[in-house]
Amino acid sequence: MTLPTLLEGRLALPLIGSPMFIISQPALVMAQCRAGIVGAFPSLNARPSGMFEAWLQQLQAELTDADAPFAVNLIVHRSNARLEEDLALCVQYRVPLVITSLGAREDVNAAIHSYGGIVLHDVIDDMFARKAIEKGADGLIAVAAGAGGHAGTLSPFALIQEIRQWFDGPLALSGSIATGRAIAAARMMGADLAYMGSPFIATAEANADPAYKQMIVDSHAADIVYSDVFTGVHGNYLRPSIVASGLDPDSLPKAKDMDFAAMTGGEKKAWRDVWGCGQGIGAVDKVQPTADFVAGLKADYRAAVAGFTL
C-alpha cells in the first residue's frame, strides 16, 4: 500500500472529505484541512465560473503547511462545458490533489502531472479502475455500495480485493464510512485512505439547508433510495427529500441521459431539492462543528486500532 508523498506527515487521520455537490465550499474545506484531513470540493460548486479562481486564491492564502492539503474534483464527462477552463486554473494554481470523476482522460492527467500534482480517479468496479490507471491516474477511489451521491453496487470487500490483486498504489475506499472504526476497517481491508462525505453534511460549515442537516441526523440506512432518475447516473438519495419534492420514491419516472450541465436546472434539482446521502448516516446523531466531528473520529479510530487483536 502507498500513500501519495504529498500526504506523508500531513494527515492527522487517513481520511479524505469527499467533494459534495453544493455542500463542499471553502468554509468546509478549510475546516477539514485544519482538522488534519484532506478537504475537497467540486470545481462546479463555484458558480459563476469566475468564482472558482477566487476560491483557489482563498484556499492558498488561508491554508498553511501545518494544514492538510486540499483537493479539487473535476467532472470529466463530456457534458461538463467548464472542464477545460477549470483544468487550466488547477494547473495555474498548482492544485496539489485532483479527483477526477465520470471519465478518465490522459490529457487531464498529463496536465496535472505537469506541475507535480496527483490524480485520484473514482471508480465503481475493477474494469474502470484498470482503465483509469492505464490512462495515467496515480491512484484510485473505490466507490462501493452504500456511498453517497453517485455510488456503485459492489461490496467493499470484493472491490478492494479485486483492485489490490494488481494495483499497489494509492487507494481510498468510499461507501457508508461514518466512524473512526470504519476508517480503521477500510485500512485493514487494504485501502490507504477512507473517503467520507455524508456525515460532513451535518456540520456547521457545510453549505446545506438546516433541514437537510437535520434529515441526516434523523435518518438511517433504510431511508436511502438508489436511483438514476435525477442525473442519469445511479446514486443514493434521502427518501424524505424525494417525498418532499412531490415524487413517489417507490414509483419514480424513467431515468434521463446523464447531463451535468442540467444538474442545476429544471424544477426539481439534484442536489438542491433531492438530497444525496450515503447509507452510513445512522452513526450521525447531531449537527456539530467539523473540528469536533473529526476529533471524535480520531478518538474512535485510535481506540479501534488499539483494540484490534487476533
TrEMBL record:
Keyword match Cytoplasm: no
Gene Ontology molecular function terms on file: nitronate monooxygenase activity
Sorted UniProt keywords: Flavoprotein, FMN, Monooxygenase, Oxidoreductase
Origin: domain of life: Bacteria
Pfam families: NMO
The keyword Flavoprotein is assigned to this record: yes
Membership in a protein family: Belongs to the nitronate monooxygenase family. NMO class I subfamily.
Name of the protein in its database record: Nitronate monooxygenase
